[in-house]
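>> received
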Amino acid sequence: MRDWHQVFDQNVQVPPHPHRARPPPKESTAFQCVLKWLDGPLVKQGALEVLSELGCHLRVSLFDVTYRHFFGRTWRSAARPVEPLPRQPPRIVLNEPVYFHTSLSHPGIVAVVEVAAHGRRRDGTLQSLSCGFGILRIFSSKTESPRTASQDRRLRLYHGTPRALLHPQLQDPIEQSKHLTAIESCGLQYTLQPHPALEPAFHLLPENLLVSGLQPPPGLLPAPRDAGDALRKPRLQKPVTWYLDEVFFTLYPSLEKFEEELLELLVSDHLREGDGPLDSSALEIAERRLCVGAHNGLGFVQRPQVMVLVPEMDVALTRSASFSRKVGSSSKSSSGNQALVLRSHLRLPEMVPDPAFAVVFQLEYVLSSPSGADGHAAPASALASLARMHTVRWAVWKPPPDGGSGSATLPLQGGIRPNPAHCLVYKVPPASRSSAEVRQVEAGTVQFQFSLSPDGHPDTPGLPRAERRPSRRTPTTPASPPVPPPQGLAASQDSPVGPGLSLSQLAASPPSPTRCRSAKPSSQQPASFEPSGAQAQEPPLEGGIAHLEADLSPTPVVPGTCVAEQLQELPFAPVHAPIVVGAQARSSGGRLSRACLALLQAAGFPEILDASQQPAEAVSPADPVKFSPRKEEADRLRGNEVVLQFLAFSRVPQADPGAPWPRTVYFTFQFYRFPPATTPRLQLLPLDGAGKSRSGSLSHVLVPASHHGASDAGPPGFQLRYLVDPGFLRPGERRWFTRYLAVQSLQVDVWDGDALLLIGSAAVPLQHLLRQGRPAVQVSHELEVLATEYEQDAMVLSGAVTASGSVRPIGVHTVVKGLLHLTLANVGHPCEQSGREASTLPPSRLRVISNEGAGRFDGGSLLTRGAPRRVKNVVQAQKLAEVDSELAAMLFTPLPPGSKGPRGAVQEGDAVRRRKLERMRAVRAREAGGERGSRRSVLAEQNVRAQHARDLQVIAAYRERTKAQNIARALSLAVTVEHTLWASLGTAEFFEFALRNPHNTPHTVTIEVDNPELSLIVDSREWRHLKAAAGLHTPVEEDMFRLRGGLAPQLFLRPRETAHIPFKYQTFSVAQVAFPQASTDLTPEKGTEPGSPGKDSAMPTRHAKVLFRAGGGKPLAVLLLTVQPQPPAVDQVFRFYHPELTFLKKAVRLPPWHTLPGAPVGMPGEAPPVHVRCSDPHVLCETQNTGLGEPRDVFLKVASGPSPEVKDFFVVVYVDRWLSAPVQIWQVHLHSLQRVDVSCVVGQRTRLSLVLRGTPTLRNVRAFTSHPQELTTDPQGVFALPPHGVQDLHVGVRPRRAGSRFVHLNVVDVDYHQLVASWLVCLSCRPPLISKAFEITMAAGEGKGAHKQITYTNPYPFRRAYRLHSDHPDLLQFTEDSFQVAGGETYTIDMRFAPSRRAGEREVLIHINDHEDKNEETFCVKVIYQ
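>> returned
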């Protein structure tokens, strides 16, 4: 194994450019680069002929393109022989992993890979040849790291050597430079990816150092035998703790002469550099510091500990905590050769038993400027380069491999040789002065005691180490008991550790006066320093240095005086009981049996016909769908009429016959991007032909109900039609609609029409609606309606495994509530070919908007609003009130006396009416004729002419006043381009604006956008991604815009130049288009076409404006965008019921990313990062990357509102880094209900009262519950709720099973089917105490059941009445539900047990309650079905 000196000498690094160290440091990122193989004839034929034993290797170096600076250390791979095989392309296999970590996340930081060949000449000498080099890009932007996918990449190689990169003509991007020539058919195959597993070993590996996984750094365990890469999953060696005590530094010839020579040489260097003369007394030694740390040859494993050394004489004279006092002349004469003493012991817990690990000692001197006799300090400009820390000596100690304890004496080193601190060190005596033995100690020595146990050195806390030496001990008495050291620190209480000080910290004055040693201690008097603030750029030098060593005298600990420490967060994954996506809507179904089909046909449901009035082709839901996009594109029937026909809703055969069944139901759903639909209330009518077998599962058909609850006389069922034709679809949207049918499922929520409670949900696949060239198709489904029940959040650690092998979601239970019979159909219709269809337009025309046609003004009146005209300069006459209402109001409104202006446009209608009356009066006067009438007509004409003259004056004044405004408006219309976007939630609508500079001079254009949802694309990678997705082939420019922080971006345009400016419109806000909890009056006629683009009043039109300003603020072009929002295509619907005014916290677990609809197919490597966005800014939505192969959860935190508010929002899921197209859109409904907590016992009735408040009007209401067999209300039926009244609603709860669950309670207006009040009853049920247990055995199958009897004795001395209840009324029925028995007598209870179809064991509880329904006793009967 290599020792410390060998590792240190072989790993000397070049630091990065100084300008790279100026920005604040960032977190370092680890990378793994696997160099796989070299392809191509890299070695020339001449080298093959001249050199023998030819080999090849790679050299990798880090390079800063911006500053043309190589840094770090060049890594060299192992040599590979070059043996070209005949008839095979040359390839050199490497397979060497390279690891490094860096915080310089800048695109200018690259890795340069050089291919070198080596061999022997004919004379036997070695020669190396450069065969080419390549530039490996690590970062692609200033803030982004490379892609996480570990896919293979190919590196292009260029002729020459990497030294060519230092040429000033090579500018970034270097790969596009004309001075570089690529080597044809040659390249390096490699992979580059972040490597977070290296982060625990960052302390062993310096930054920017390239290492091979085959040669791990010291401190790591070697790789297992089967894997030679030790850095792929690094394993740290177990550290040991070394204790060092009695540390002494001896400097020759003496401490005083050494320090005096040091100060004189510093002053003489200052004079030699031409900074002017300086007195040698201008510098003082403020502190002598010792830096000790563990070093593995590459760097310090942890930050070195900083201690303060004091002269030995100062320790003997005083025990003050200030160790910078000057020693008087009398002290010096008797001191002899003093030593620098460390008064505390050292603890090094990071040492590793490795030959490359060593302990490094660094002796540093801190210098400062003393105050003069007059109180003024030396000039700061003269001492700026001197008043700092200077490293004077260093030493390395390698612990013995066998451990143990002992003493060590090490020679100190200095001079120009490399040292672990990578800084200049004070010189050592010349080598010519003495022999090698003397030179070894002439630079000084360090002595210390070492041990692996803290008990190896007897220690008395609070006493200095120098005082415990036997020959130099001074009698002392401790003043107080020692203070125990705090736990978890690297050093004990008497080993003060301090950070390294910067120049600004050195200039800061200490809080207490200190004394320092100068070059002439005998003549220097003590001087106190005044505190002064530190400045970062030019620190004042008159200050001293605050001591780093703590006061060793025992002091009591005062509460509240300690410094608060920041707690470190531990790795913790909160358990939110995740909900699996698709678990709520995953309903199994199958094709209908022949018996059900016969019942449906006999019921008289309307038949679905195609465009030729022929029955649509029926397909089976069990048949696989062969989807061909070409067939859908080639279909001549461009219109698709999607028909949804709700036929029946039936009980499941296994349901409890006594369970309640709704009278009416209604359905809510959303198809594609049509508005959400809610059907009217449909009545359930029983069928007479329903049997008891599986084929007879069809029990109730759906019939439209009137407002009074009676069924209509029309055909049964309910039908909805959606017309999806080229007039509805946007350009290019047809393929998306086809894909939606192929991969999506339609989720239908089933509601109780009377109780307004959710019965359940069903999901039906839409893939059978693909016609594939057929005129019409229809498919009939029988779907299970599932009710999802969420338990209260608990610390549940795992979920059960379902029969299909998937994990059942934790805390989520599904119950089959019924069977929904539904028919889906798609009828094709011929449509006229229009220019708006995407197939007839090139894709570029749909994405590029140009201002070429808006650069001229066609003329005409200024009053025309830019309307199209058939003839140039001809304007059709219009009413003045329609053209300019303000001018009309001025002309036809009489001015009252003393007024200064018109009364306004509010009297415009009166002016028009007076004008019409004047005309009618003039016509009647002309018809009357006669001389008298003619005179009056002449006067009238004169008055009209005078009025016209006044009107012309008003018009002229008005036009003069509004001329500038109208001209500016007309000119603005000349440069304005209007465009319409059809935007949906979360989808980035990408387009380019072709901006042309019409002038002959260049312009710097400022781009102003007034809508935050419309953004300018400034990242070229995002631009390329969106162009590739849109199929656009316009050019892409790098660094196109000048970004100015919060100001508008700018663009430079040359004369007559056209530039394509990329924009994207993306919105995450939608209008509140929630499903109403009560059904609406949607008739079949109204529901024929629920929505179309631009016709939905709930989706208001939005506008955005982009202004392109040239120099001087003049508009160069204006882009007006009209955005028509479209309802999103929802993939999953979640509905949560939560207590009001609380926070809902849920975790939704995503399926594997490659199974998500819309995920890219064939993408190698690990899963991409998942991003989520929410339409409601008040909802916290986030996801975390848990690692490769781990499931991903989306965490939601929502604040619920007051009851009965329903909060609706959307969650958008992306798997691309630019959030361009969502792969999943979820709709979440949060129902806020009043919470009522009830603690009860199974089988016993618990009563409570709820306050029901009336509305402003009288209502007829009724209470409904989701579990009527366990929760009852009083009053039970319909009752009147007075306006603004308060009424008690009595509730009785008798649960049938133990545990915690939710029960919903609604109060509904029975006349208008509106929700008046709602409660969420949270049950916490305890099991009862069982007094007796029985066991019976029955035969499984279609039997008659069994009759059994048990006896019960009344324990009371008087007659009592009892009631009987069971937790399984479907298995156990009583002959009498209540009985009375006298005191002390026995009563026989007759029971009948129903048969079971399946074998197994069931436990049935028999509750015997008193007349108040309180539980007296509970019997348990174990029924075994064989």
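>> The chain is about 10% helix and 35% strand.
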